[in-house]
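Crash report, auto-generated. Payload:
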Amino acid sequence: MSTKQDDEIAQERLVDLAAEFYDQFASGEVPQMNIPTRTKSNIVFDEESKVWVYGDRTSTRSANSVRGARKLLKAAYAIEFLVNQLEADRSSTLRELYYLSESWDNEEAQFSSQDESNQLIEDLEIVSGVTREDFHMRPEESGATLMGPLELREQTRRGEREIHCQKDVGEGGYQIPNNPDTIDFLDHDIDFVLCVETGGMRDRLVENGFDEEYNCLVVHLKGQPARATRRITKRLHDELDLPVVVFTDGDPWSYRIYGSVAYGSIKSAHLSEYLATPEARFVGIQPEDIVEYDLPTDPLADSDVNALESELEDPRFETDYWTEQIELQLDIEKKAEQQALASRGLDFVTDTYLPERLSAMGVL
Amino acid sequence: MSTKQDDEIAQERLVDLAAEFYDQFASGEVPQMNIPTRTKSNIVFDEESKVWVYGDRTSTRSANSVRGARKLLKAAYAIEFLVNQLEADRSSTLRELYYLSESWDNEEAQFSSQDESNQLIEDLEIVSGVTREDFHMRPEESGATLMGPLELREQTRRGEREIHCQKDVGEGGYQIPNNPDTIDFLDHDIDFVLCVETGGMRDRLVENGFDEEYNCLVVHLKGQPARATRRITKRLHDELDLPVVVFTDGDPWSYRIYGSVAYGSIKSAHLSEYLATPEARFVGIQPEDIVEYDLPTDPLADSDVNALESELEDPRFETDYWTEQIELQLDIEKKAEQQALASRGLDFVTDTYLPERLSAMGVL
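Recovered output after restart:
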């Protein structure tokens, strides 16, 4: 839960950052901020937390140029805004921050594009060790939905809400709030968590009662999952000790969706310990399934081939399993969507495919 | 509500269609299906229902060519599938239908692309006068969310759920199901319905308690609204006699979002009476607001200018209000996002802008 205490820690860290600039000035140094280099070559596997984090290489934002000085000025203004926001128990979106800067008294401190303000917030996350959610910065788009035997309590601005994610929700399920750390898990009957890429497949599983029959919690990823969706998935795994499996289309873009659940992204490796579920496993559609279940396919486009080749060189996919599957796919030159399972009938996915795959994986 | 009776009507109409092909065959005619021409030049304003519907021009799908005959064969197979689906009280997505056709015994009846199966379902909607929802065809992506003083009952496959859209939901709100005709409105305290384009603005309104202070129901459109979102908006207006206002960014694409709520789309003018809320009014961001509130703007791109010019020629936008606003925008050559209101502070939208605009419109 995002508590008063979390808010105070966030404020403190932000003020510490500003104080550091001040101390550098006071001691006659040129103020600067050091930030890990955020590229594929600077991520390393952390054995302890089992996630990919940034390595030792850093980049410096220094006031030794006009451009650099302006960056630190903007950082100082943003810090002031965030500290005030936390004090008032308000929140805002990244886009609102960008527009809001137009009201700042110093024109040099105003952001010239939303990319600039977005990046600054990421920098502040990294340097302060506090997540954007704890700054009370909301994303533009909300998380997805849950359906399954889970009872939770959400702390809203309007008081607590206790919600059972099957009995108290409509067919659309429970909408994950922007900051899922406002949720406490009260009770559950879940055997495993099933993250599903597409809305069509999510609805299929719910219509067929898969969550009821197999005591599973269906998490709709809605394509590339929002931070809120990844965060709640991680918390379900860590706090309730539940296996997590990911069910997507069978193409390189969907493997990246799996990757973002399991390994985190290169752009936000500073958040891996907060967002990634390294124990999450991939159900499919595997290239092997395309062959085994003789699924309707589309040919790989050039961009698919490039993406697969780039995955072969990505340290996060350097396992025997992924090497084998990706090489198989490059060999058969085909991809398949998860809804292609409907070519064997609408119940094939819940009666045959998932039970077979989950048994083979030892989840059932 | 989608009742057993609705299902029976849908089945009957579908079987009637197939019977018509049969009768045509039996009487020695070449089977055919007549469908309204779906272009901008063939939509007319229906004075009675106040929505734009198709005019008199029709296109014919006839079996007098191999291509045409194959189309009718596919229609016959799809009709059989839909009738069976309704009998079994199942449902499926458009994509599942496409894949499922691979299991049909006649290869000529299988769809060669999803565009083809999508279009066939639209044709069947038009010819049968039954909506896709009543065929039990689900969209890929679900509707958006509601937040406000509304108590409803949703008929789910797992029984009835009674939900208050403030007291029984988290901050994410109530997720609209794929077919909102499974909802009954039980009780409400709503003065007006406020449809909002972006997630960031929706969250701002909810954080600021705008729904509580003004007794309004906030409907998140999520960009171009899904059918489910438009349908429930229309039902709120018609059944509860509530004013509906639409709040979007200030650019031509957003005016189209307003247009799809108010007037329906050219592609689905056969559904206007089911989906469109012609009494819905546009709050803003109006081009006039850009000037009046001195909002941060972006210059119009060429594609924006083209879209605005095309709207000037669109019969649905041929009103004094829209002509004036669009000409003003072409003149100032600027557009603004709804979140640009944050340049005047995070509460400006709820304390000043919306109260001023809604008072001027007579809604408050």
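Post-recovery validation: The longest strand of chain B covers residues 150-156.
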